[in-house]
Amino acid sequence: MPEKFLRPYDSTATESRIYTAWEESGLFNPDECVAQGVTRADAPSYSVVLPPPNVTGRLHMGHALMLAVEDIFIRYKRMKGFRTLWLPGTDHAAIATQSVVEKQIKKEEGLSRHDLGRDELLKRIETFAHESHDTIIGQLKTMGASLDWSREAFTLDETRSRAVRTVFKQMSDAGLIYRGLRIVNWDPKGQTTISDDEIVYEERTAKLYTFRYSKDFPIPVATTRPETKVGDVGVAVHPDDARYKEFVGKEYDAVFCDVPIHIKIVADAEVDPAFGTGAVGLTPAHSRVDWEIADRHDLSHEVIIINEYAKMTVAGRLEGKKTSEARETVVEWLTSEGLLEKEENIVQNVATAERTGGIVEPLPKLQWWIDVNKPVPGREKTLKELVIEAVRSNAITIIPEYFEKTYFHWVENLRDWCISRQIWYGHRIPVWYRGEEAVVGEAPEGEGWVQDEDTLDTWFSSGLWTFSTLGWPENTKDFQTYHPTDLLETGYDILPFWVMRMILMTEFTLGTIPFKTVYLHGLVRDASGRKMSKSLGNNMDPLDVTAKFGADAARMALVVGNTPGTDMRMSEEKIKGYSRFANKLWNIARFVLDSANGADLSTELTAGDAELLSALQTLSRDVSTDIDEYRIYMAAEKIYHYAWHELADKILEESKPILSGSDTAARASRQALLVTLLDRTLRLLHPFMPFVTEEIWQSMPTKDAKFLMVARWPDAV
RNA sequence: GCGCGGUUAGCUCAGUUGGUAGAGCAACCCGUUUACACCGGGUAGGUCGCAGGUUCGAGUCCUGCACCGCGCACCA
């Protein structure tokens, strides 16, 4: 027995040494597995592309969970003999990264992005992104992730940029990308457009004011934003509202807080007669709903009264005021004119920008959009329909299944996707202008071309992730071998943002699905069930816990009993429990290797021993089924239970008298049995606790491959 | 408003197609010249949210309700 077993298991020293050995072996790379003869050249492939972490800093426990789950499937399939690829990468995360760096520069140097200029800011962001990247890669390795580093990708590197330009051009040629003036979500703080899903609604109390535009205006109108009323061009009432029927079609002029306005009364079914006074003041340029109603009644969109800095652009007493100040001014004016009829408190949801916290100001802007309701040429279906069908047809399976309902609910509410952003970090829109000419795709030859100033929504490039990482648009060997990928594993919170968009982009570009199965994990919460966050100070750093208890223990704690789609609670106690298990396993090995020293493994087993072996074979099949059916939470628990409470507590204990007894046949049988049981247990446990199992296996007399990582799975032995 | 999930032992959670309720932690009792004290053996603890229904049989299927959590939409 090697001397190392005389000391307790030391995860810290072992884990980094083992990872380095794996990495140096090259066996994370499936080509190398074939070259070294551990995978058959004609083996079926199994591929997973890592959801690229944002280069905004460090990984959190959610990432650790993601890595544990994916690595389990990957290691299992690799041991099963599949040509297994797990491809790593990082995401430039455009707005998230830029706003982190901008905040940092503002804090340390007091400078804004406009003080620095585009080139200098980008340089700073790239430096930051580079450092984040290195930190993150180190963390991925610490967790034991068996990723093929030779294929690492970045959403903003040259290959991925080319994929972005190519898809943009194809979509544009297909008539699905258009540039249009529409109401966007404008973030005055970040000075950019944001998409619907970058909005966070905050519940606040607000005042609902009921007023008239002038003394002779026939209908009182309710609003929470009196300052916008200087931009009104109409009033809408419900067509069946008896109170106002007689006024529909009439037009009125007024001077509202120094601003001349012209109001037409229209009837529109979208108005809720029960809310406020049942009459809506229409401000088409500053409300998406008003814009749509105005469209239906030929009212002007062009009365713009608020600018990108959320300041008033009208003449008179409101000129240049912030919207919040203008609101007070208008209310004072209404009061002094006797036009204010009522003031009540209501609760409303205020739209704020996720990244900056700025209050979203709806503004009409010329932006790039993807049309989700237009038939895709050659497919006779819209993007929206294709995205629904991929899941409805069961081409893609979502786990847990009930999330399919959430998915459909979400997609059915999908509107055209605004893909342009007014930030600097990211893929620049691949459109070049010269006078009236415009070129889409690759930069044109010749003088005088100017590229579009805007960048693309970060989800545009991550939407291509499953195939851009495999070298597309080149028809590479990797692309042919590994696409569509087998599994996408991610948090349920980005099902709509990312998962749906990958399906959309892949259906359009390749006419196929990006992955066959979506496995959604839940949130990792703290011990009392709160979300982990910087502001609460309850963050758990994966590096700290792995340093303390080992990655094996952290992985088990994250996986055992954690069903997909369900949030879990994490605590150091829990992880500590599994570090005890690693040590238990270590001592099982110590006992077995010590007492079976020199055992003849070809000894015929006694009937009783053969039964014990067959019980473990049954367990192996059980565990395989559990993993195949995505119940890794159960598989992990079963092996844990077997190793500790069956193998250690029962079998090892009852072996003691046999091993010291005088029946030599029984003893020889038992020695062989114990070695075999330990060997199988290590194989079964390897995907879950890769380090300690590998370290023990290196001392096993049954060792039949260079690493346990590429040894055969028990039901295939 | 539309939709999703949860409610099982003191705590955290499993329970795969309906067939006598499980694990971990905590508690309590016993054990220690030993592979491991990062241990072993044992005990106690549940009307499976409530009310109906289907069934020979329901934690599991159906209907309704309550409470908790979440998503989307609206928010004039």
Keywords:
single chain, 717 residues, alpha/beta, 4-stranded antiparallel beta sheet, 4-stranded mixed beta sheet, 22 helices, RNA-binding
Give the biggest sheet. 4 strands, antiparallel
Number of beta-strand segments: 25
- Broad structural category: alpha/beta
Low-confidence stretches: none
Q: Roughly what fraction of the amino acids lie in strands?
A: 15-25%
Q: How many DSSP H or I helices?
A: 22
Shape: elongated
Specify Rg, calculated over alpha carbons: 32 Å
Helical amount among residues, as a percent range? 40-55%
How far the N terminus sits from the C terminus, by CA atoms, comes to 25 Å
Provide the residue-averaged pLDDT: 93
Strand order of the largest sheet: 6-5-14-16
In short:
The chain has 717 residues and is of the alpha/beta class.
Q: What is the topology?
A:
Layout: H1 11-25, H2 30-35, E1 45-49, H3 61-79, E2 83-87, E3 89-90, H4 94-109, H5 113-116, H6 118-142, E4 153-154, H7 158-173, E5 177-187, E6 192-194, E7 199-211, E8 221-223, E9 234-237, E10 251-256, E11 259-267, E12 279-282, H8 288-296, H9 323-337, E13 340-353, E14 361-370, H10 383-392, E15 397-399, H11 403-412, E16 417-418, E17 420-421, E18 431-434, E19 437-440, E20 450-451, E21 455-456, H12 458-462, H13 465-468, H14 477-482, E22 485-491, H15 495-510, E23 515-521, E24 524-525, H16 542-549, H17 551-559, E25 568-569, H18 572-595, H19 607-628, H20 632-660, H21 664-685, H22 690-697
Parallel strand pairs: 1-2, 3-4, 9-11, 15-23, 22-23, 24-25
Antiparallel strand pairs: 5-6, 5-14, 7-8, 7-13, 9-12, 10-11, 14-16, 17-21, 18-19, 18-20
Helix pairs in contact: 1-22, 3-17, 4-6, 10-11, 10-15, 16-17, 17-18, 18-20, 18-21, 19-20, 19-21, 20-21, 21-22
The protein binds one RNA strand of 76 nucleotides through strand 7, strand 8, strand 12, strand 13 and helix 11.
